[in-house]
Design brief:
Blueprint (H helix, E strand, L loop, with lengths): L7 E6 L17 E7 L4 E8 L7 E9 L8 E3 L3 E9 L6 E13 L7 E13 L17 E8 L3 E4 L8 E4 L12 E12 L7 E11 L11 H4 L9 E12 L5 E12 L3 E3 L3 E10 L2 H7 L6 E12 L9 E11 L1 E4 L5 E3 L4 E11 L8 E3 L2 E10 L6 E3 L8 E8 L10
Parallel strand pairs: 5-13, 16-26
Antiparallel strand pairs: 1-13, 2-3, 3-4, 4-6, 6-9, 7-8, 7-12, 10-11, 12-13, 14-15, 14-25, 15-17, 17-22, 18-19, 18-24, 20-22, 21-22, 23-24, 24-26
Length: about 425
């Protein structure tokens, strides 16, 4: 489920066209929020602020996809952000225009240089020049005036590179904000009111954060039963990755042994969160006793690692920005010995064993994404084997193998978010 940073907040501002350096995440006590579930497809959210001497009352209603909306309204790829704007005015108060906008940003720091706005949808609901305000009277009498609005989310956006060149096209990234990761992806819906030109009355806006979920209707999930019919080199749907391992075995006598290994992943290398990645590991060695030590489910360490690359502005001291990374383990594979373990290959004068495994993908993983100054990437990583009687010859922290995979989200079912 999407993490929420805030619900709604009210800000005063002087110019609708101006871009704040960094959106506020503080929920003002004067603003209220209520939600109403309106069937399987939509969940209605209403954010309000009472009118005061400083300005009119504002109500923003937005309907999110009920399958993925929880604390904040959320939307799928290609969805429509729609709802109502209602305002109540003081006697003699002058409203000049009403605007609604939807912004998508990648934030990697606290300065304007660290904000990349990749999405900026704007719609003017009314201006004093377009017609009488009285034609927008709220028939419910809950507020004085009312406007419906609708903004359709594009599936892709084009961004101009910082160093020039042709525009690059990116899919809209999934909402992203996690503790310990400076980079985040934020979507924000804003309603702004232009008021009188008098300097003592400032323009106002009310805003709320939105969630965005990528959708991939042709998603592929792993099937562990496929491993049972695995034939090395015979199944074109598997991707075989070779690597070697050298170390010292201390059992009975100290000796150096070499292992030749093949890790096979069910392909194509694109997996939906909430599914499992099927794995097949084949080990070959001339030393039968050493092979027995390594061919243990507890000895094999295969993880799903996530790397978040972001353009770091804060740490550059005014110099051109550099790329920084945050790498974390997002899951560990579980293994069991295959029935063909410790078979002998006379032609090669060696023994071989095999293990089958699966790597469960958490249903809340943020999908893979690349856009502007942010990249979220996933890798299947093989770490040095762990066995009391075996010591790897190379650096114990060095990866034996790393293979990028894509993590996607499927067309979400209700059960995924219950």
């Amino acid at each position: 489920m999407l993490d929420t940073l805030s619900s709604a907040y009210l800000l005063d501002f002087d110019d609708f066209e101006s871009e704040p350096k960094l959106p506020s995440y503080t929920c003002q006590s004067s603003a209220g929020c209520s939600t109403v579930l309106t069937g399987h497809q939509q969940r209605k959210y209403k954010y309000t602020v009472a009118k005061s001497m400083a300005g009119p009352g504002i109500s923003l209603t937005v309907s999110g996809d009920s399958r993925i909306s929880n604390e904040i309204p959320a939307f799928m790829e290609g969805g429509e952000v729609a709802g109502l704007v209602q305002i109540s005015v003081n006697n003699g108060e002058d409203i000049r225009a009403v605007h609604v906008s939807l912004k998508g940003r990648v934030l990697t720091g606290r300065t304007s240089d660290a904000v990349c706005t990749f999405l900026d949808l704007r719609k003017t609901l009314w201006t004093a020049q377009s017609g009488s305000l009285e034609t927008h009277r709220d028939s419910t009498n809950e507020y004085d005036y009312i406007w419906p609005y609708s903004l359709v989310l594009p599936k892709e956006v084009a961004i101009s590179p910082v160093d020039g060149g042709k525009d690059q096209v990116f899919a809209l990234p999934h909402s992203f904000a996690e503790p310990g990761v400076p980079a985040r992806v934020q979507y924000e819906l804003i309603v702004s009111l232009e008021q009188t030109k008098w300097k003592w009355k400032r323009n106002r806006r009310i805003a709320t954060e939105l969630g965005y979920v990528q959708s991939n209707p042709n998603w592929l999930t792993g099937d562990l039963s496929a491993v049972a019919t695995f034939r090395a080199g015979a199944d074109a749907n598997w991707k075989a990755l070779d690597f070697s391992l050298t170390g010292n075995v201390s059992q009975f006598q100290l000796r150096t042994v070499d292992f030749h290994c093949t890790l096979s992943l069910k392909g194509p290398l694109c997996f939906a969160r909430g599914s499992s990645i099927p794995l097949h590991l084949r080990l070959r060695c001339r030393d039968k006793q050493a092979l027995e030590l390594i061919s243990s489910p507890d000895a094999v360490v295969v993880q799903l690692n996530r790397r978040v690359n972001y353009r770091d502005v804060q740490m550059c001291g005014g110099k051109p920005s550099r790329w920084s990374s945050v790498i974390e383990s997002m899951g560990v594979a579980t293994w069991k010995i295959h029935e063909e373990t410790l078979s002998e290959e006379p032609a090669l004068s060696c023994y071989h064993s095999a293990l089958i495994g699966k790597l469960k993908l958490d249903r809340d993983l943020v999908p893979s994404a690349v856009i502007a100054n942010l990249a979220i990437e996933y890798f299947i990583s093989v770490h040095p084997f762990s066995s009391p009687a075996f010591q790897p010859k190379d650096n114990k922290g060095a990866l034996l193998l790393s293979q990028m995979v894509q993590v996607t989200t499927n067309l979400l079912s209700q059960s995924e978010h219950e």
